[in-house]
Amino acid sequence: MRLKPVCASIILLGLSGTAFAATNSNVDVQNQLNTMQSQINSMQQVINQNNGMTQSGGGTALQQRLASCPNWYDSISVSGLINVDGILSSRRADFIGLTEGPTVEPYFGDRSASDLALDNADLFVDAQVNSWTKAHIGINYQNNNNNYTDDNPKSPSSVTDNGSNVNNSLIIKPWMGSLIDEAYVTFGDFCRSPIYFRVGKQYLNFGNYDRFATVPTFTQLLSQTNETAATLGFVSNGFYGSVYGFRGIPSVTDNESTLGGSGHYYGQTVNVNNWGANLGWSMKNQDSSLNLQVGYLNNMADVDYVSASGDQFGLGNGNSLTASGYTYSVGAVSVDASGSLGMFDAYVHYVGAIDNFAPADVNPELNTSGVNGAEPQALVVGAGITTDIANHKSRFGLDYQYSWESEFVGLYGIPEARAEATFDMSVNKNVNVGLYVYHDQDDSLSDGGTGRGSTTGVLHLGVMFA
């Protein structure tokens, strides 16, 4: 996107999106420059694939500008997006279900619910400090009545009102953070080096997903991680990778107060205690694209949605991983493959723990102790076709999702299976509408679920601006 002047008193000057000014009229030289620019833009997209500026367009014009500008306001890009959803579901969104059924899952019942909600509104500010340094801030508002009920994303509160939050959990989503959703600095110049370093609050390179998905996939629920971290990565000849470290939630041992020799209690131990890495390869040309990626996270307890495990369905027992700490770390892996050929596209995403959680952290059955806790996993397989309808770019998509041992992951759990049909259309420049219909199936009675299903439809309006 390009910025346009908004008013004379507030200078929001749009950038041209061209990194190199053509100084030679020779067509071959210009074509070479355009090819180089395209390669650099692709490298920038790779390192930002899970961050706000990728899906929203925020900062794209600035990212394409590699040279410092003579005026400071030429180096600042402002953009954003607004998403509004109309929702109709065959399941309930309140907590009346707490007194019914074999389990306490409010999203598999015999009633219906509807809502019209501002899903999220985001503002992005990007600055090209110099040729080696870029800064990014993402400000986020999210209608949390649509998924959680607490102001702290990793410490959900008790829900005891039996339905006053009528819209709660209609669409299960990971928390998107506080008002300042992202704030990081990236050091690197791909014209000179394939290596970059990023530090600050960011979405980590674990899994591959759409940050602003109308209906997040099961794999997104098990992978989206927003932390203040340090990331060192590279992008070269289609290959890319990174390693990162951050201070995650404390362990049970670190969370306990200890009595020192002087008779004073020492509080929670704070350490940089989690890390991860990813490695991938991507290619893109005019008619086709392919992206392959694997990732590893040393402790899955820090995934945004997983961290609320232990306080299922807002029972307020205070046992969430964030509140109590984790017993021992459980690593997780992600495998992603996506590609397109002409008008067709397809993707496969997998995220899974490589060991069992402690029963006190993520139990496979509610209020049931055992030798092993859950080993959550999820798989998403989908495909789509993009075509023009009345001169409007449109996409039809189908996907199937399945989870294992994820019944009681997060605040509301994850359904066992989902079948989804989607339709998206660009009705005007930076204005998109979509229709998403999906059917969720709960685990069977023998596996501790309700055996019920629910169908939900979402009518979506998205507007991006710059």
How many runs of DSSP E, i.e. beta strands? 18
Please give the order of strands in the largest beta sheet: 1-2-3-4-5-6-7-10-11-12-13-14-15-16-17-18
Percent of residues in helices = under 10%
Structure class: mainly beta
- Output the radius of gyration: 23 Å
Distance between the termini: 6 Å
Give the ordered list of helices and strands.
Answer: HHHEEEEEHEEHEEEEHEEEEEEE
Return the average pLDDT rounded to an integer.
77
The percent range for strand residues is 35-45%
Shape: globular
**Tally the helices: what do you get?**
6
Biggest sheet details: 16 strands, antiparallel, barrel
Description:
The chain is mainly beta. 9% of the residues lie in helices and 40% in strands. The protein contains six helices and 18 strands. The chain has helices at residues 27-47, 52-56, 60-63, 218-221, 252-255, 321-324, and strands at 76-89, 113-130, 133-142, 180-187, 195-203, 226-236, 239-246, 258-259, 265-266, 274-284, 288-297, 332-341, 344-353, 377-389, 392-404, 417-428, 431-441, 453-465. β14 (377-389) and β15 form a beta hairpin.
Q: What descriptive keywords fit this protein?
A:
16-stranded antiparallel β-barrel, 18 strands, single chain, 466 residues, disordered N terminus, mainly beta, 6 helices, globular, two-stranded antiparallel sheet
Quick description:
It is built from six helices and 18 strands. It has 466 residues and is mainly β.
